[in-house]
Amino acid sequence: MSRIAQAFDSRQWGVIASASVKAVVVTLALSLAGCGAGGFSLEKADVDRSIITSSAPSSLAAPAADKDSDQTTIGNAVSSADVKELGGQAVPWANAGTGSRGAITELVELKDGGLTCRRFSATRESFDGVALYKGELCLAEAGGWRMQEFKAL
Questions:
Q1: Can you give the pLDDT at residue 9?
Q2: Which of 96, 91, 97, 101 is nearest to 137 (CA)?
Q3: According to a count of CB atoms within 10 Å of the terminal CB, is the N or C end of the chain lower?
Q4: Is pTM beyond 0.70 here?
């Protein structure tokens, strides 16, 4: 064990470490010199026109179709709700087709001259934001419900 220790004394380790540091410095200097050899300048820099942003086509019909689909879903939830059993509680709704959801509140049933209607407020949470709507659904002669009013506030 002492022969190995004698073979590599501290002076020899210093020579090996010094040579390693010199090799790293030379390698870095050559790498940097290679980068600068091309003569980069700001005058030669140009805009990269190969990258195009905002290239997805916009579709204005999709949000209107989503709103119509959500309006139908809200109407179905209002018409099927048991107003007496709710006792003022909110009715949650969700449309799997559009990903929208919300809650129906202030749901009241009114009877005027034999016509039964339900007035309500509804929230709509979707990818394009949150909105509040007021609406009225009335029972038609054929027995189905028809949306009389549905407007954003």
A1: 60
A2: 91
A3: N
A4: no
